[in-house]
Design brief:
Layout lengths: L11 E6 L3 H10 L4 E7 L2 H11 L3 E4 L11 H7 L12 E6 L4 H10 L3 E4 L4 H12 L4 E2 L1 H21 L1 H4 L3 H11 L4 H8 L3 H15 L4 H10 L4
Parallel strand pairs: 1-2, 1-3, 3-4, 4-5, 5-6
Helix pairs in contact: 2-3, 3-4, 4-6, 8-10, 8-11, 9-10
Length: 229
């Protein structure tokens, strides 16, 4: 007698925002069955309306869109402030753009996006990025994450002076903590910092122990609360 199958997790409810219909069609073709497209929009104003109506888990949006105040994806995020999913979790935003300029990255992250990936990303990696954002992670490609680190580094330094919890961490542990909190995988952290994966694992365990946290999701929330992302 076969064992009963484990129930499948609910699909991630997704809204696609891009002013090119063919590109939206291409994205839909690349995503797997774990993604449920509940709405689409081609400009700022219709995107805000669709987000409010459908209350998705994640909004995948371009940073350059017509309408609004001329700030593209940033206007969508600010105009959707306060919208939550049916479970009460804030709707999360992941930027997907052909642009990899520091100005675009920083603007949309300041507006409240949880991550930023470029349109060179493949289907499986995009699916993974969406899933990680839905789970509360911050997701950036390594080069784009560098822009965010540079832009917010000063604020992070100011927090470090007065944050006793942060002071418990060594310099290397802080570096690892910030990358992990942004959604880097262990192998990506190892490559970025020129250390072994085993060393990354050791640092992460030490960080979680010192901060009395139990998961990378809690670590991301902790870092966001201190303006370290």
């Amino acid at each position: 007698m076969s064992e009963p199958r484990s129930p499948q997790p609910a699909p991630i409810r997704l809204v696609l925002v891009d002013d090119h219909r063919m590109f939206r069609s291409g994205v839909k073709a690349e995503l797997d069955e774990s993604m449920l497209i509940v709405g689409e929009a081609a400009d700022v104003d219709s995107a805000i309306a669709v987000v409010a109506q459908t209350r998705p888990d994640v909004v995948l949006l371009d940073v350059h869109l017509p309408g609004g105040n001329g700030n593209g994806g940033s206007d969508v995020i600010s105009g959707s402030g306060g919208v939550t999913t049916e479970s009460g979790v804030p709707v999360r935003f992941l930027a997907l753009s052909v642009s990899d300029s520091a100005e675009d990255v920083i603007a949309v992250i300041r507006a409240g996006a949880r991550g930023y990936v470029t349109k060179t990303i493949n289907g499986p990696d995009l699916t993974s990025a969406i899933r990680r954002v839905a789970d509360g992670d911050a997701v950036f490609s390594p080069r784009l994450a560098g822009f965010v680190l540079d832009a917010f580094g000063a604020a992070a330094g100011e927090v470090a002076v007065i944050d006793e919890e942060l002071d418990r961490l060594s310099t290397r542990e802080r570096e690892v903590m910030r990358l992990i909190a942004r959604g880097y995988q262990y192998k990506e952290v190892a490559k970025e910092l020129f250390i072994s994966i085993k060393t990354v694992e050791t640092h992460v365990s030490s960080v979680l122990r010192k901060l009395q946290l139990s998961s990378r999701h809690e670590l991301t929330a902790w870092a966001v609360g201190r303006h370290l992302l």
